[in-house]
Each structure stands twice: as structure tokens, then as C-alpha cells.
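Quick start: read one record
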Amino acid sequence: MTNSDVVAFVLFGGSGDLAKRKLYPSLYLNFIKGLLPGDCKIFSVSRLSEEVQAFQAEIFLQLERYVSPSQFSDEKAKAFVKCIRHIQLDVTRDDAWETLETHLERFRHAPIVYYLSVAPRFFGDIAKGIASVSLNQNGARLVVEKPFGHDFESARALNKELRLFFDEHQIFRIDHYLGKESIQNILALRFSNNIFESQWHAGAIESVQITVAEKLGVGDRGDYYDNNGASKDMLQNHMMQLLSIVAMEPPFAFSPDAIRDEKVKLLRSLRPIDADSYSDSCVRGQYVSGQGEASYLEDVDKESSDCETYIAIKGYIDNRRWAGTPFYLRTGKRLAGGVGEIVINFKPSNPELIKSKDGLCSNNKLVINFQPDQDIFLFINKKDNQSESFSVDTARLQLSTKSGDLKQPYERLLGHVLAGDQTLFVRDDEIEVSWKWLDQLAASWEQGGSSPYPYKGFSQGPIEADKLFVESNGWEPIK
């Protein structure tokens, strides 16, 4: 990645929690690695009034808190915070943009990054305001967080609104899962190793499991969560992105549009779940009290709610590569462990000439962990040297990277924004295709009057989800 030519980084919502926990520390890490020019200015924009030196001192403390000791330096942190300026601005006021123009006038002839760490209802107004003072030109980049819409129509409308003021190549829709080392390693494993790519198809793979499990409940996100649930909070964005990277066809080149073209093709091949197939393809759940923790209804202070805190999907991809291979997607809150993993279950050897002492032979399995650890394991069969007879047992090969060697997702993604590289960002048609698929799913459960199944806190989820695995070996346990 080349050094950035960005001259100003404008952070809307610069006094917010995400900015302090993730964005300033990630910008600092890019700064100390030379990916952020030393003369670049960072503008924090919010409604709050902040005295410059006091605000810089606060960000310094946040860096001490959230940057690893091995990467934190008093001297470098002080140099970084000197780049930060605060702008008090109410984006709902018409005169806000003249104020912004006054601060950015001397930067308008080189690229400016605008990061929208604000509620989605402000996205369109901010894009329009920036364009009203012609600050959307000369390589300007607009970064937007999820949620991007709440259904297909709203996402399409938001895409159209943003494209009135910024071209698609200027818009960076961020999904921090795409910045995780293990997720990017999927591309390297597949397309740089023939032992995997030659077997990456329905003829060799029995099933694929993608799990994102959390031990936490909804916490202080109750109002947001009750209007969205696990399907909109996780399935439509993070899970769909993971699925598309695992299952997409090889791109013709390692370039942003070539990769995203294949992701879109994959998502369009994902079989819709209609009312007839819903009962065999989807299970929704809602956590109840367990191990002394409150139920979901207690957490959101409601007597009843049909909001799902767990969703499991058995899906199929209707293309030549994956015909007949089930893809199992599972995500939920207040589960037995906090883990993110992708499990590729290969088909057993046929015939099984050599078996284990118990008369079985384990399938080969590739396990990609992406949170909290970022490890990759390949399970193979080898001779059991403890057995009197000639039999096999399972061995685990591990590809591990020291956590200190890994870039944090936001650090990596912001580095790509600064370099103008959209490879790790979501394109407009990806958003719309995934929403259209989820809208069909939501219509199916509403048509059937389906309510979420209860499951105890810190369990594996609703037992009804096990029915999805009638033809397979069962869920990998959440640990």
C-alpha cells in the first residue's frame, strides 16, 4: 500500500464512542506507520463544544487505553493529537456547511476523507451538505458505517441519495469483519493453494458452517436491537459478507471490482427461502434467563417481543460449484461462548480403507477462527501410533499468527481508505442483493406467523435448530 495523499480526515461523530475506541486509535496506528501524512489534519465534527487542548488531551488518554503497549509511544501520540482539530457543527442546520467550508477551504484541492460515524438518518444530509460547498471533489472519499438501510427499498433509496453527491468509486461502505486477518486469509488459502482450490466445490465438501456467537446480551442497545434483531444486525451484513468470500468464484484479477463482481454473483445465487421452505431452512430464537442473567424481555423492558436474538439458516447456492452443498449460518447473543468461525467439512474418503479404533474415520476439516482468536486449523487423519492394530486418529495442523503481528480491522480498513483501495468495502449492488434476500426471508416467517423459540442464556441456542442438521453431522459446539 502506498503512502496516502489525503490532506484532511473529517470525522463526523468525532466525540462518539466508536471514534474514541476504534477510529482515533486506528488512525494513530496508520500515522506511526507513515500511511497518514504528517501534515494531515484530522477534524472531529460534533454538536458538542470542545476546547482544542482539552479534546486533544482526552484523545491522548484514549490512545493510552486502546492502543497496545508495544505500539504506544508518548512522543508519537503527542505528535498525532496535535493533528486533531474540533469543529462544533449541527449538521441539521443550513449554515453548517459554510462553517465546514471555512475550516476546509485550504484543503479542497486534494483528497479529503469524510467518515460518517453517525446515525444513518444523517448520511444523505451530510453528503448533500458537503456537495453544496463543492467539497466532494478532487478525490474526496465518503465512508459510511452500518446499518445501511433497514430493507431493500430503504437501502436502494440511500444508495441513490448518496450517488447524487458522490460517485460510487468515492463511497466506502465499511464492514469491519472484512478487515479481519483470518477472513482475508480465506482468499490466500483458496487462490494460492491448489490443494484447497481444487477441492473447493460440492464434489469434495460436505457442508460449510459459519458461526458468530456472543456471550453478551443486547446490553444498552435494546431500542436499536428490538427493531432489527439478529437478522438485520448480523445476518444481512457480516454473515452475508463471510458467505460470499468463502463461496465466490475466482475473480479474473485481484482488484476491487473483480472481487466484488464475484461476491455479487454469489449472493444472487443464494436460494431464496420462501414460505414453503421456511420451516426446514430457518430457526429463530430469543434468550430467556439463565445462569443468573436476565432474559431478553427483561433487558429491553418489554412484556413481549417477536425480536430474534438468534437465527440459524440452512441455505443452498444454486450454481455449478455448490449444487447440493448445504451452508449453515448461525448467529446469536447470550450463547455458550463468544466465537466467530468458519468450518469447511470435507467429504469422507471413499472407500474408507483404514479406520480408527472405534471403526470410524473422521472427515477432513478446515476451521477458520476469526474472533476472538485468528487461527486456522486443518484436521487430517494419520496413523495411530498408540494402537496395536493399523488404524488412524485425528491430527490438527495449525496456522497461527501472533496477535501482536496482526493489524486491527479498523486500522487495516482505514489504511485502505487512505490509499483509495475499495477491495475490502461493500459495493452498492452487494447491499441491495443481500437486503432483497433477507426481505424474502422475513416475509416468509411473517406469513407463517412464526415466533422465536426460547433458549436459555449461555446455551447452544434453541434445540429446534438441530433439525436443520438432519442430513449432516451436527453443529460444531459453541465454546
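The first helix runs from residue 17 to 32.
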